[in-house]
Amino acid sequence: MKILCKYTLGFIVFGIFFYGSIPPASAQDSLKDAPRFEMEEIVVTATRGEKTIASIPKNVTIITSQDIEQSTAGNIVDLLGREANLNLRSTTGNEGKSGVDIRGMGDAYVSNVIVMVDGFKLNASDMSGADFLSVPLGQVERIEIVRGAGSVLYGNGAVGGVINIITKKPGAGLSAKALITAGSFKTYGGRFQIGTKKDRLALSLARGYADSEGY
Questions:
Q1: What is the residue extent of each domain of the chain?
Q2: DSSP three-state, residue 51
Q3: Is 2.170.130.10 the CATH classification of the domain at 42-167?
Q4: What is the pLDDT of residues 87-121, one digit of tens each?
Q5: What is the pLDDT of residue 151?
Q6: How far is CA 141 from the centre of its chain?
Q7: Would you give the end-to-end CA distance of the chain in angstroms?
Q8: What is the sign, positive or negative, of the torsion defined by CA atoms of 103, 105, 106, 108?
Q9: Phi and psi (nearest 5°) for 96?
């Protein structure tokens, strides 16, 4: 441990000395010329394998965890309802259990879009739609929306597209996160998540609530 500390201190001192020996203009030029690296979004749903968006010949939308945190949506139905060319309709009057219409599939919309959670099908067998409220929004890491036919990979039910809801994986130890939102028209809500992981065993619990008197 002592040797490591000595090397670390030496590296810091050398870095300060080296930077101080560069004229200000040269230092700025060096920063401008330095390469910038940006990580591309990785998509799993479109090809059933990890690919970047740029390499996929499909119309793919990713709703990231940052998008979810910055939104005022109280559940997945609210969140998906804000996406272009994507409509959620319920045949039972229960908003949480809705079918997804991508690109105007008509009356057969419920049977033409597959909704999954971590790769497992969420669509109801009675064609009443997917039970979106069974997955708390606070538990969602990201959502991948693939518009267009996916029958080759997922079967006849994916003529219109595929939606894959990917949940958060708890890290080592105990973690907890809470978010409270408020807005006009007496709009308020909150999300809470707690998770733990030990060896190969992981447990995660989440709960969310939202209410509004607005439109």
A1: 2-33, 42-167, 173-211
A2: strand
A3: yes
A4: 888 766 666 778 888 877 677 777 788 899 998 88
A5: 61
A6: 4
A7: 61
A8: negative
A9: -65, -30
